[in-house]
C-alpha cells in the first residue's frame, strides 16, 4: 500500500519499425505509446501506409528519417535487414488481411514481429503464419493486450494457485455500441469488410479478445462451441453481435457474448470465472479492481499493487494502488515483456521470470475460434470442434 | 424528487388463506409480509403443512383460529367456500409439484389463487392449470415477483414508449452460489428433487424468473432456444447451471444464464436490453436504479420515483427516491395489484389503470421454457421451438 | 447464504394510535407500513390532523372506527386511556413543535410513545420531554430509523467487537437536493419554518440523523463542535446546508455535512468510520452493503444476512442476502424492536436479547446538536460544547 | 464514441534534465514516464541524488551519459546552460525543502522548470520562488497533476460554461491509509519530517492537491479557512489528518478532508461541486467518469472522450472511451501541455489553444493554504484569511 519507488533500469533501446499506423490509423498510435512508456524501444523506421504519399507524410510527422520511411513493407524488410543499425523488431498494425504477408518478410530475415490481433483474416493464413514463426529464429508477439493488465495477470495467478478450485463456469463478454448504426469512418469500414477483416465481424474484432482473455486467465482449452451470429445493421456483411456457448476440456462450460450494437457499452470487456472454491470478476473499463469471492466468505476487492495483490500484478505495475493505470499501461506491459524477451535473446541470457506475452499459437486459436463461430452459426448452432 | 406523501386508501381487507408456508418454509413468510405491507389482506386460514402437527403448530404461531387451521388443502377449500366469511383468495406456496392439485380445489370453488412460481413441475400440469383457471370465475395470479419492482415496470414502459426502438439483443442472467456445494437443508433438498421441483433445477427455480422478466420488460415472445445444461455438483439429478441462447419472434436474439454454483453471486438477476435507439440495464440487487443510454448520449441513472421515472414506477412506489425499496416491496406490488383486481371484481367495477400481474399464461410459458431447455440440452443443444 | 426460512411468531398485536399523519402527510404513511410489516401492531385510533374535517376524512380512509377518530390528541389520550381495549402505544408524527405537547398527554397516562425525530423543536422542550418520559412508566421510542438498518447494526457490532480498534476519524454526511430551489409544497413549507421545525433547517431535519447514526455506530460521545451554516436559497429563514467539525471524547475527530441544496443527491446519508485497525463505510441508498477494510488487507463487501454478517444484522433481516431490504424494513425494525420491548413489559418478562431502539436521551442529544450548530455558526464557528 | 485515430505530430524533443529522482525515489519515475508518453521530451542530464555515488549509479541505470550525470544541481545548471545542446527544461522532484534552491539556479539561467508540488516547504520560500519565476524568462510549471486528467478539465469547462450556475458548495477530500501506522520507509520518512516537508503533513502532501483541484475546477478563490488538524500516530510531528471548513469569495462554502490514516483509502481524491443549477462529482480512482446532474433531471455519466464530453477533455485524451486512461496519462498531460508552451516559446509562436498547466502562483496559494491550516488549527480553528 505504501508509496514506493520502482527503479527503472535502462536496458538499451530496441530499434523498432512499424508497418501500418500512418495518419488516421488508431491502433498504430497506441502501439507507439506502448513502446515508449517503459523506454525500451526507439521507433526508427516505418512503412506506415500502402499509399506512398501518406507513408512519407506520416513518417515525417513522426520524425522518422526520410531514408527509413518506406513505401512498402517488403522493401523495408530487405533494407533494414542489411543495415548495421537496422530494426530489431517490427510492429505490424495493418488491417488483418495484410498481417501474414508483412510478418513473413520480417520473420524470414530474423526480425522480431509484434503483430496486432487477430493473427490473420483466415485459418489458412494463420497456419502459414505459425509455420513461418516456428521456422524463424525471431520472436513472435501477438498484442492481445488485455493480458497485459496487472489484474488479469493477478487473476491468472490466483487460478493457477488453486484459489478457485476446479473451474466450472466461464462468463465472458465484450460489448461495444459504436457500430449500432452504419458508420462512414475508416475504422468502421475495414472492420466490416470481410476481404480485409475476415469472415468474422464482431467475433474477429473483439470476440477474439474475449476468447483469448478467458483462456489466459482460466488456463482452459476450448473443445467446441455453438454459436448464433447476427448482423443487425442492414446490409452489413459480417456479424455485429454474437452469442456463443463454450465447452472446455475437462468439463467447464462457458458463454461468450460480443456485440458492437449494444448502446451504453463502450469497451465493456468483462470476465467472470467460477470454480468449486471461489469466483473472480474483472472488467476492462475498471481494470485496477479484481473481485474475489472465496465460497462462503465476503467478496474481496483486490486492487492493483494493493493489499492482496501478488507477484504477477506487482511486476507489471508502475504506480501505487489508487493511482489508476489503464489501457496504455496494459498495452505497454506486452511491449515491455516482449522487450525483455528480445533483450534476453540478444544477450543470450535467460528470460527473466514472469515475462509473458501472447504467441503465434494463441493467434491461431483466435482465428480458429472465429472460424468455428461462423461455421456453427451457419449450421444452425451445431457444436463445432475447435480442432477442426 | 421532493418528499411527498402518498395517501393510503383502505379498501377493505381481502380474507386470505395460505397453503404451505409453515415453520421452516421460506417463501411463505415472504408472501405474508407482502400481503400486509399495503394493508389489503388479512390472513385468516391456512393449510400450512402436509404434516398435521406442523400445520397446527404453524397456524398457532401465526395467530390463526384453530378451526381455520387445516391439515389439508382440500378440506380447507371445501369448508372455506361454505363459510360466510370464508377466504376470498388463497396463496399457494408449496413445492412446485403440489401447485396444480391445490390450485384446482380453490379455482373450482371460485376462490382467487395467488400461486408461487413456477406454475407447475411439468407441462402437462401447466396445461391443466390453464384450463382450470380459464374455467373458473376466480382470478389467477402468479408471483413472478420481479415484475413488481418499480424499475422493471419503468423499463417496460420505456420499451413500450419506443425509447429503445426495435429491440435487437436481450441479455439476462440469474446467478446464485448457495448450491455450489451439496446442501443438507430443506430449501435445497426439494429444489434438487425432480419429483417435486420438476425436470429443471436452476432453470425452474430461477431461470424461469429470468425468462419471465425478459419477456415482461421487452414485450418479446420467445420463438426457440438452444440450451446447454449442467449439473456440476456430483450426484445432483437436476441442472445447477444453464447456458441458453434465445431467438425471439421478430428477429431479436438473446442469451440467458442461470446458475446456483457461481461463488460471489447472491441473487444476481440482471437484465440488459439493447435496441436500435438505446439500451437499458437493471440489476435486482440494486433495484432502485435503472440505467438508460439513448444511443450517442451519456448514460443516465434513473431512480425509483426520481427525476426521469414515469407513471408505471411511481404508481408502485411508496417512499421518495433515495429511500430504497426492496424485494418485499416489489413482492407486495404484485399482491397489491392483485388486490385491486380482486376488489374491482368483488365490486363489479373497472380494474384501475396500471394494475398488472403475471398470469397463468405466463406460468405456462415458464414451464414450457424449462421443458425446452431440458429437451434442447438432451439433444446436444439443438434449437427447440417454444410452441412444442 | 443459503435460502432459509425465518419463522414468524405472532405475539399478539399491539393496539396502536397515531397523532398526525393524515392525508398529504409523508412520514405517517411510513410509520403505518413499518408497523404492519412484522404484524406486531394494529392501528385502531387516530388524531390524524389538527383540522377536524381532515382528521375525520383521514381516519375513514384508513378504515378507523369513527368513534376512535379524534379531532385532537388530548381528547384521544383521555378517552383511549379509559377504554378497556384502548391503545397501548401511540405514534407521534406531527411537525416537530407539536411533539412534546402530544407526547406528554400519552406518557402521563402510561401509553407508550413512538415519536418521530427530532425530539422537539428546541432544547427547553427536549429537556421537558426527557423529564416526562422518565416520570412515566411507559416506553419512549424515537424513530431515528437509520439505526434500524441491519448493516448499521452490523457496523455497530463490529466496532463494539473491536475490529476497528480505537476510532480516530468519523466522516458522516446527509445530502439531498429537493430544496435547491424554493418549494411550495407542504413538506417543504413546515420544514423551513423555524416556528414549527425549530432553529435548525437541514441540521434539524437530516443533520440530526447523521449525528445520531455516527454516535450509534461509533459509540462515541460528542464533546464539542464548530459549525458554519448557510441558507443558500434566498429568503430561507433556516439553514439549508451545514458544515460541522466534530470533536469526540477520547480524541476521535469528525466532520459532518448536511445539505438540502446539492443537486444529484436524493437521500445520500453516508457514514465512514476509521480506526487504528480498520475502516467501515456504509451508504443509506445502498443499505444492504457494508464495506470493511482491515488495515493492510483487501476491502471486503459484507452483505446483509450474507457471509461475514453477524448476529445483530441477522436478527433484523427477513430475506436472504441478495434480496434487498430497504428503508421501510429498516423503519419496521425500530417498530418491531419497540414491540418486543412493549410486549416484554406487558408480560413482565425480560426484554429479548438484541432489542434496541433510540431513546428520549438520544433525542435530547439530537436537539442539543442542532442548538450547538446554530450557536457555533452565529459565533463565527467557535467550538461549542455539547454539554452547554 | 467511435474508434478514431489521433494523429501524432512529432514536434522535436525537448532536452530535459532532472534533479532528484534517483534509485528508491517514487515521483521521479512518474515524471520520466510522463515525459515520454507523448514523445515530447528526451532525458539527457540529471543530478539524481545528493549522494554522489547514488547520483552516478542512478544516471547509469537511466542510460545518461556520464558527463551529464551530476553530483549537484548547481553544477548541472551552470554546465548545462553553457552546452550548445544543454537541457531546455528541468524537472525538480526532490523533497519539498530543496525545490526553491534548485529551481532558482535553473530559472536564472533561462531553463524552464517543471517542479513537483508543494511549491516549497514554507511561505517565505514560496514568495521567493514566485519572485524568481517572474524575474526569469523561463516557464515555471507545477505538477499538480490531477488537473491533467481529462475529466477534471471537462468539469472545469462545464463550470465555466455555466452548467452548474452559481456555485454554492464544494466538497473535496483526499484520503489515504498508508500512514495509519508508523512506517520505516524512505517515502514516509521525509514526508513526516517538518524540516523537509514543511509544517504540514497530510495537508502539504495531499491536502494541497485537494485544495488546488477544487480551485481549478470551480474557479473559486479561497477567502478564509477554519481547520482542525490531528496527528493520530504517536510521535508524528506533522498532521496526518485534517478537517477544514472553507469560505470562498462570492459566498460559496466548502469542506476539505485529507487523511493518511483512513484504512481502505488508497488515493481517494474526490471532488463534488454543487451549484444553483446542477452538481458534478469526480473521483480520482475512477478518473474516466464524471457524474453530472442537472437539477431535476437524472444523473448522467459522462465518460472520457465519450458522448457528452467536450473539447477540453478530448484534447488530452489518447484512446477511445471505455479504454481507461489513468494517473500516468493525466500526469503526461501536464508535461505535454508544458511542452507545447515551451515549443511555442522556442519558436516565438502563439501558444496553442487549450494549453494549460499549474503555475508558480498556484504553488504559492498551495503553500499559503497549508500555512493557514496550521495557523487556524493552532488557534482553536479560528478562521484564518488566505491573504495572510
Automatic annotation (TrEMBL), chains A, B, C, D:
Signal peptide annotation: none
Looking at the record, the residues that make up the Gfo/Idh/MocA-like oxidoreductase N-terminal domain are: 14-142
List the Gene Ontology MF annotations in alphabetical order: nucleotide binding
**Entry-linked SUPFAM superfamilies:** Glyceraldehyde-3-phosphate dehydrogenase-like, C-terminal domain, NAD(P)-binding Rossmann-fold domains
Sequence ranges assigned to domain GFO/IDH/MocA-like oxidoreductase in this UniProt record = 153-281
Which Pfam families does UniProt cross-reference here? GFO_IDH_MocA (PF01408), GFO_IDH_MocA_C3 (PF22725)
Domain of life the protein comes from: Bacteria
Q: What is this protein called?
A: Oxidoreductase
The scientific name of the source species is: Ahrensia marina
